[in-house]
Design goal:
mainly alpha
Length: 351
C-alpha cells in the first residue's frame, strides 16, 4: 500500500484466534478515517444517521404544515365547494382551532413513528412514559417558572423590532367566542400540543440524542424546537422552554412532568386571553405582573426543594467526541441543514 493511503485512513483489525487443528477465524478490517479513533468515528456515523432520521421527520412535519391548504382546497373542490366558500369556512376561529388539533395530532406523531421505525428504533425505547422519579413538585415549579419568564422573550423581540422601525407581526388568528369556544381553545392549545409535541421533541428527538450526552441532547432538541415555530417572535421563547422541558425529562426519567408543565403554561395563556380580554391595559399589566411574581416564587421554592446537590447538572457523557464535533456533525447533515434554512426563510415572511 502506498504512503498516501496510509496517511488517509487507519486500519482496525479484529484479533485473530488460532487453535491447533482448527482453521483460524476470519480477520475483519474496519476502515477508520485519519484523525478519528474507532469510537469517535462510530459516534460520528451514529449521529449522522440520527440527524438523517430526525431531519426527515421534521421536513415531513414542515411539509404538512406548509402544504395542507393545497389538500384542503382540492378536497373542497371535489365536493363542489368554491374556493371563496372554502376560504370562509377555514377562516372561522372554531374551524381553525379544530384544524390545529388535527394537524398537530398528525404532524408530531405519524412522521416520527414511521421514520424511526424504518430506522430500526423501538419507539418505547426513545419515549420515556414510566412514572417520574425524583422530586416531581420541584421540577414542576421550576419548569412553570421558566416558562412564565420565557414569555417575556416574545415581548422583547417585538419591542426590539419596533425600535428599528420594523413591523414584524405574526397573525395567530382569533379565538372562538363563548364557553364552548374556550373549551375548544383549551383542547387545541393546552391538551393536544403538550401531548404530541412532547412525544416528538422531548420523546423521540431527545431520546435518540441522549446517547451522545444529555447536555448535547437537551440543547440540540431545544434548538430544533425553537426553529420549528417558524417565526422570530416565538423562537427565543420556544428555545428556553425546550431547554427546561428537556432538563425535566432527563432528571425525572419521564415525559409526564414536562407534559404537565407544557399544559399548565398553555392553559394559563389561554385563560389570560379570555379572562383579561375585557379589562383595561393597566389592569392586564397588573395581573400579569402578579402572575410573574407568583411564578418567580414557585421557581425559588422548586429550587429549594431539590435535595440533590447535582440537581442542575447532567451526568458526564461517556462519548469521546467534543461538543463542537457533535454540533458540526449534526447540523451539517443535509436534512437538518435544509430544515433549518426553511424555518428561517419562513420566519422572514412576517417582515
Amino acid at each position: 500500500m502506498n504512503d498516501e493511503n496510509m496517511n488517509n485512513e487507519t486500519f482496525v483489525v479484529s484479533p485473530q484466534q488460532e487453535t491447533p487443528g482448527v482453521s483460524s477465524t476470519p480477520t475483519y478490517v474496519t476502515y477508520v478515517p485519519y484523525g478519528y479513533t474507532p469510537k469517535t468515528y462510530e459516534e460520528k456515523m451514529g449521529l449522522k444517521k440520527c440527524a438523517l432520521l430526525i431531519g426527515i421527520s421534521l421536513l415531513t412535519l414542515l411539509g404538512i404544515s406548509l402544504f395542507w391548504g393545497v389538500l384542503y382546497y382540492t378536497v373542497m373542490s371535489v365536493f363542489g365547494i368554491s374556493s371563496a366558500k372554502a376560504n370562509i369556512i377555514i377562516n372561522d376561529p372554531a374551524a381553525m382551532q379544530a384544524l390545529q388539533v388535527a394537524l398537530s395530532s398528525l404532524m408530531f406523531t405519524v412522521p416520527f413513528i414511521l421514520v424511526f421505525k424504518a430506522g430500526n428504533h423501538r419507539i418505547s425505547d426513545l419515549v420515556p412514559l414510566k412514572k417520574p422519579e425524583g422530586n416531581k413538585t420541584a421540577m414542576f415549579f421550576i419548569g412553570l417558572s421558566v416558562c412564565a419568564f420565557a414569555n417575556i422573550a416574545n415581548s422583547l423581540c417585538g419591542q426590539l423590532f419596533s425600535q428599528f422601525g420594523i413591523d414584524y407581526s405574526v397573525d395567530f388568528g382569533e379565538n372562538p367566542d363563548g364557553f364552548f369556544g374556550f373549551l375548544l381553545s383549551l383542547i387545541a392549545t393546552a391538551v393536544v400540543p403538550p401531548l404530541v409535541e412532547e412525544f416528538a421533541c422531548r420523546g423521540i428527538i431527545l431520546g435518540s440524542l441522549r446517547k451522545y450526552g444529555d447536555g448535547f441532547g437537551v440543547l440540540t432538541s431545544a434548538i430544533l424546537f425553537g426553529l420549528m415555530h417558524g417565526n422570530f417572535d416565538q423562537m427565543p421563547f420556544a428555545f428556553m422552554v425546550g431547554l427546561v422541558l428537556g432538563y425535566i425529562v432527563v432528571k425525572t426519567g419521564s415525559l409526564w412532568i414536562a407534559v404537565a408543565v407544557h399544559a399548565a403554561n398553555n392553559f394559563i395563556s389561554v385563560a389570560f386571553e379570555y379572562l383579561l380580554a375585557g379589562l383595561s391595559q393597566n389592569s392586564q399589566n397588573l395581573i400579569y405582573s402578579l402572575y410573574l411574581m407568583a411564578a418567580l416564587t414557585a421557581g425559588v421554592i422548586g429550587a429549594a426543594l431539590l435535595t440533590d446537590k447535582d440537581g442542575f447538572k447532567f451526568q458526564k457523557s461517556d462519548t469521546e467526541s467534543s461538543l463542537k464535533q457533535k454540533f458540526k456533525w449534526f447540523f451539517t447533515s443535509p436534512t437538518i441543514s435544509i430544515f433549518t434554512v426553511l424555518c428561517l426563510l419562513e420566519s422572514l415572511l412576517y417582515f
